[in-house]
Structure formats: structure tokens, C-alpha cells
Amino acid sequence: MTNPQWNAVDTYFTETIAPADEALTAALAGSAAAGLPEIAVAPNQGKLLHLLARIQGARSILEIGTLGGYSTIWLARALPTDGRLISLEYDPAHAEVARTNIARAGLDKIVEVRTGAALDSLPQLEAEGAGPFDLFFIDADKVNNPRYVEWALKLSRPGSVIVVDNVVRGGRITAPDPDDPAITGTRELFELVAAEPRLDATAVQTVGAKGYDGLLLARVIG
Ligand code: SAH
Ligand code: DHB
Ligand code: MG
Predict the structure, then answer these.
(1) Between the CA of residue 99 and those of 69, 72, 142, 205, what are the distances in Å?
(2) For the chain, what is the domain count?
(3) Is 94 touching ligand 1 by the criterion CB < 6 Å?
């Protein structure tokens, strides 16, 4: 679902209080030129992620689903100079575009893009003793969202924040198509979060340049 008014309002918000700069503009242009799908978060959503990381006082962030590194740049800019962001990306071509975009933004010292299926990278991170991470942004293959939240919990501390993108998908979450694994995965995610005593959560619907969608926000109890 799209709506010209939603786009106009998003543009207004972005131009007034969440303006792009050279590195963000170049990241989107570089991603488009490389043929990446245009599914990065909207600018005002990127700014929301940035502010959440700042409000959280995050020093370490784990992102699942890098694409061209657009959300990565917004998040990494919230970190102190000795902070760390690890972003997991399945597609080596996406990861390469992202590394270029992140370096152009001057963030390559604090951001590491790891290539591979996230469900392979996550146990590696655990084995390395990475974490606990202060904030997680989950935005990859939706079918695995329940597994990603379980991993986020493992790599968290009391007070860690978990954000999951795209939990509404045009409203299809309440009209589940059993043949759409993204939707069944999202419903399983909500059941898991509901049953998990260590998580305190909400979800909000959003409209805008990204259509009709929404995000889930959770905090690890403690
Ligand atoms: N967070 C980005 C958008 C991510 S789009 C932004 O807002 O700017 C989703 C990304 O997840 C794609 O690049 C896709 O290749 C990646 N992805 C899909 N399946 C994955 C998996 N199993 N492990 C890691 N990344 C995956
Ligand atoms: C899709 C993925 C996303 O992460 C998003 O924000 C929008 C769309 C997709 O796979 O279509
Ligand atoms: Mg997304």
C-alpha cells in the first residue's frame, strides 16, 4: 500500500528535521547504481534508529541485514569513537557496496560488515565472546526473525534494546497466508516475544515512504 500524502509528509519530516548529508545521499546513490533493491529504511526511520541508539547510550550495536549500509550509517553515527557496530549480510555483493558506503561516511573504524547467513555468523559471534550488545536492529530475511530474536537475547544484557523492522507488511500479519513464510515467521515472532519473560515489548504501525508497515521494539528486562 502506498499513498502520495504519506510520501509528502515523510518528505516534509525528512527535509525539516532529518535532512540527508553527503554520505547518506551517496550511500543511497551507490546502492541504487549497484542494482541493490531500494528497501533501506526511510530517512526519518534511520533518524529514529539513530536517536534510539543515543537514548540507549549504546556503545555496541548488532545489525542483521546490511544491504548497502544505509541504516548502518545512521546507527553507527550514534556510537562513540570507541564504539562498535557489527552488521551481518548474506549477499557478498551487498556487503561490498555497504563497505564502500561506510568507508565514505568515515565509519569503517567502528563498523564491521560480516558476510554469510546470519544464522551461521551468530554462533561464531557467540564463540568469539562478542557482546553483549546494547542494541540490535533486525532487518534481514523475515522468516528467521524468531531465531534472530532468540540470538539477540543470547547476545544481550539486561537493558539491551531490540528493534525488528517490517512486522506489519501492509497489514498481512492479521490475514496470514500460510504460504508466505515472512508472515508466518512474523507471527511466530510475536508469539515468542509474548511468551518470553525476559522481554518487554510493543509494536507500532507506520505509514510513509516505505508504505504501510511497522516495527517491534523490545527491551531485555533487568
Ligand atoms: N537494514 C538495511 C536494509 C536491509 S534489507 C537498511 O535499512 O538500510 C535486507 C538485507 O538482508 C538484504 O541485503 C539481504 O541480502 C539480507 N539478508 C537476507 N537474508 C539474510 C540472511 N540469512 N543473513 C544475513 N542477511 C540476510
Ligand atoms: C523488504 C525488506 C525490508 O527490510 C524492507 O524494509 C522493505 C521491504 C522486502 O524484502 O521486500
Ligand atoms: Mg526493513
Answers:
(1) 7, 10, 23, 31
(2) 1
(3) yes
